[in-house]
Automatic annotation (TrEMBL):
Keywords for the protein's UniProt record, in alphabetical order: ATP-binding, NAD, Nucleotide-binding, Nucleotidyltransferase, Pyridine nucleotide biosynthesis, Transferase
GO terms of molecular function: nicotinate-nucleotide adenylyltransferase activity
Name of this chain's protein: Probable nicotinate-nucleotide adenylyltransferase
Top-level class of the enzyme under EC nomenclature: transferase
Record field: transmembrane: none
Amino acid sequence: MANKKIGLFFGSFNPIHVGHLIIANYMANFTELDEVWFVVSPQNPFKEKKSLGNMYDRLEMVNLAIEGAEKLRASDIEFKLPQPSYTIDTLVHLEEKYPNRDFVLIMGEDNLAGFAKWKNADIILRDYRIIVYPRPGYDGGDLKDHSSVTMTDTPVMELSSTFVRKAIKEGKNIKFFIPDKVLEFIDKKGLYL
């Protein structure tokens, strides 16, 4: 039997919103992927640590958002790895842990544009496939035509976690921007105020 193809969708998910969910669901249902795992980053090497919500809260929000969704999973794999976490290290670790899975990277066109700066970018391109979703105003650059890269017609989402956090802080109604269960969790814990 062929290995299951798992798309890895890395992010802070601070908080997760419908844009993330639409991308993940598209990838799980309109590409050759069997599942999509939301890999919640404890700390992105490019982001200030203090601006991140508690990683366990962010993981819990992902779990609440995808409850009952077939083909979508939350992963805390990076919580257990040395900080800061680099994608190549996570990929190698996952391959050892799940030898009967094939891992594929999911990324936005904005990330593809800066991909050459990533740790071991050449090895990732050699050993893994990358499925890319469009981002408004970005062009994937030279890598768009790379044999390891697949561009998709994922619906374009301009919604961002920054926008959501700002709206919460300003007391705006953000129903439909994030799943109701996530909204309840944010309210209950008083996050992003």
